[in-house]
């Protein structure tokens, strides 16, 4: 039987020889680019998998790879914020010695040695992509440090103390070396307490140098006139503001504990402010910008977005009577995707007795609603979309003091 099988094989092979010859002929006629398409298709798949493996959340880290080739050259471009990505790429490219690895590790040489900056406007608007017409991604307040990662078309890719990555125009911050930034942050700083204020050219004057919002940090020069202080912005621009509007930032940056009463007080003072997608300041806030700002005004930094905040703190079991909830807990709303996973789309602060304070686009401003059907401010769609509750405390996941968040940014 073995011999018979062998005899039958050769006629079959002979029948397929024309087809095999045709395949070899076609392959030999392929252009170099077509051959590279075939050779690199698997590599491209592996690059996509590597990026997903390295970066759990693109809002806080990046690993962007682009393989470019033509008939003459082959190179891997892109950038990453993760040093480990370069090691992983090196291992992946061992089988492709012809590929020139041009992936950049950020901060890039394009920003020089000034890899940090201090926000110098009351509220800086950070965009999801370079350009003033791009989506507002988040905001940063005057005196806040940022990590400067890259410079493209006169826009800087930066990282804020909550680890959020977005684009900012250079005019909104003062670029510094790490030692310079430490001098600014570790020196005496004053924090604006009222919701808003102004820095003027003269004590009590009407010529405005800059507007101010709660949480702005300025440096006192030591000069005082009547009830006014002379203050310096990060770029050393000087102006005057009422002494009563400020307090030393030390205790705020390193609080001993998180007071629920003070958290709710700060949240209630923001009531009525307009809803603003991407906003994280008293000028306007989205839902997670509101919760983030309430914590920030009490000396704590929490993640930026609702889908990130839902992983901070500890879980609180939801019941129909809300008996497990405590004032100050964060409530998370959303829906289920087709695959059964949760999609968190909204967050608010629980006030007690079924009420919560939140910034909703449907309300247009920060306002109070209730989860109880008997209440006049009942929001049925919110009750139906309530998915989770979390309790945040200083020793829980995702909660840092302002001082620790600032320091982590400068010592990364």
UniProtKB/TrEMBL annotation:
It comes from Neolewinella agarilytica. GO terms for molecular function: cysteine-type peptidase activity. InterPro entries: NLP_P60_dom (IPR000064), Papain-like_cys_pep_sf (IPR038765), Peptidase_C40 (IPR051202), SH3_16 (IPR041382). Residues 257-390 form the NlpC/P60 domain. Belongs to the peptidase C40 family. Pfam families: NLPC_P60 (PF00877), SH3_16 (PF18348). The keyword Protease applies. This is Cell wall-associated hydrolase, NlpC family. Keywords: Hydrolase, Protease, Thiol protease.
């Amino acid at each position: 039987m073995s011999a018979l099988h062998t005899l039958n094989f050769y006629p079959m092979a002979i029948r397929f020889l024309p087809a095999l010859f045709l395949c070899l002929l076609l392959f030999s006629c392929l252009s170099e680019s077509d051959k590279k398409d075939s050779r690199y298709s698997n590599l491209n798949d592996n690059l996509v998998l590597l990026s997903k493996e390295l970066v759990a959340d693109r809002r806080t880290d990046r690993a962007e790879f682009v393989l470019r080739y033509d008939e003459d050259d082959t190179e891997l471009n892109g950038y990453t914020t993760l040093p480990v990505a370069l090691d992983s790429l090196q291992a992946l490219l061992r089988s492709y010695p012809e590929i020139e690895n041009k992936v950049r590790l950020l901060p890039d040489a394009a920003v020089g040695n000034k890899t940090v900056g201090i926000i110098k406007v009351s509220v800086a608007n950070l965009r999801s992509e370079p350009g003033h017409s791009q989506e507002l991604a988040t905001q940063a307040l005057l005196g806040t440090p940022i990590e400067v990662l890259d410079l493209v078309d006169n826009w800087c890719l930066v990282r804020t103390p909550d680890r959020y990555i977005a684009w900012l125009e250079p005019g909104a911050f003062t670029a510094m070396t790490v030692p310079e930034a430490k001098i600014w942050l570790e020196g005496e700083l004053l924090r604006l307490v009222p919701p808003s204020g102004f820095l003027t050219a003269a004590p009590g004057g009407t010529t405005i140098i800059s507007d101010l919002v709660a949480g702005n940090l300025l440096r006192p020069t030591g000069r005082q006139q009547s009830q006014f202080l002379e203050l310096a912005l990060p770029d050393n621009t000087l102006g005057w503001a009422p002494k009563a509007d400020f307090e030393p930032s030390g205790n705020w940056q390193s609080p001993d504990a998180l007071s629920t009463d003070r958290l709710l007080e700060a949240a209630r003072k923001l009531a009525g402010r307009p809803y603003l997608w991407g906003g994280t300041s008293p000028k306007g806030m989205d839902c997670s910008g509101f919760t983030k700002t309430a914590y920030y005004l009490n000396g704590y930094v929490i993640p930026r977005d609702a889908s990130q905040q839902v992983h901070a703190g500890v879980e609180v079991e939801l019941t129909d009577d809300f008996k497990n909830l405590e004032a100050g807990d964060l409530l998370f709303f959303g829906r289920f995707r087709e695959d059964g996973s949760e999609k968190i789309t909204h967050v608010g602060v629980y006030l007690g007795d079924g009420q919560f304070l939140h910034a909703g686009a449907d309300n247009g401003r920060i306002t109070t609603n209730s989860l109880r059907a008997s209440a006049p401010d009942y929001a049925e769609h919110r009750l139906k979309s309530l998915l989770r509750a979390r309790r945040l405390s200083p020793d829980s996941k995702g909660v840092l003091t302002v001082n620790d968040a600032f320091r982590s940014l400068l010592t990364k």
